[in-house]
Amino acid sequence: MGLDAHQERDIELPSTAVDAAVRLPFRPEGISPQVARQAVEWLVDLQSGSATNATRRGLNDWRQQHPDHDRAWRHIEAVNGRLESVSAASVLAHAALASPRSLRRRTGVKALAVLLFAGSGTWLVHREATPWQQWLADERTGVGERRTVRLADGSMVALNTGTALSVQMGSTERRLRLVSGEVAVTTGHEGAFAGLPFVVETAHGELRPLGTKFSVHLQDGSSRVAVYEGAVAIQPHDADGQALTLRAGEQTRLTRDSIRRPVAAQESDIAWMDGMLLAGGMRLADFLTELARHRPGRIDCDPAVAEQRVSGSYPLVDTDRILEVLQSTLPVRVLYFTRYWVRVIPRSTGA
Prior knowledge:
alpha+beta; Jelly Rolls; Phage tail protein beta-alpha-beta fold; 3 domains; 8-stranded antiparallel β-sheet; 7-stranded mixed β-sheet; 23 strands
């Protein structure tokens, strides 16, 4: 589909939950692909978090250069106005901003221009990160993949399966944005970055580690934070009076407007760094939910066996082998409908 296409279509951004369907206005006639991309570039710059008065003056100058420029910008404002009703107006620009790498930014801007200017349609807007944000992130892992990266300041960041992380090492601060998945961070302070603030941002708030080792997991509409060394200052995005300093050995969950009371952190929760899944009396349903993160497809658990308990150490290198072990040690059967669709049922039940 090119930018000149003019037809109704639905655009779905897959994620874990849909908030709303938003009908977009029709594309204005006669807007060239070049002007469309320029307009999206201005949107990205304005919502970058570092826009200045000079940026806004530059946009005004650009709009006055040609009537098509102003029409293109008014179209973007109309689209953003529709999306603001579900608190998603900035998702378009933030998608292209997720990475400072020029190639990914150019690719994202081009794709967003197509979505914004290809015609009328419906956006299915989601609470969680969109694929654009994940694809454009600096560091990513696929399903079943785990790896560790060393940042310019010497910090070590381990990425669990299905993780997307954006990295900005600037002159005034070091900022990581966890787009999806789970990371374990050991902070460093090397070279020119010594003494600069270190911030980890999620959809729910900001974390400021105080010389520490900690993990962050985006899960069930919240951010789970666990501290293993040092401390982490936590501030939800929409709750100024609810800041909390989490100490070593503690973990909590935060949403945009709340922080739960801290509880004891479990070292077993980061066993994935060593390629292991540890369970000590874990519900089978919960165990399978965690296992499903590390293999493509889906694993369903029959409610009749959901409360069975699982214990042991399981190497994540072979998830099929883990399912075999469950079948041999619990009163369950593992049914493979396809390679990517597995269901665990009571042993006495047929297919």
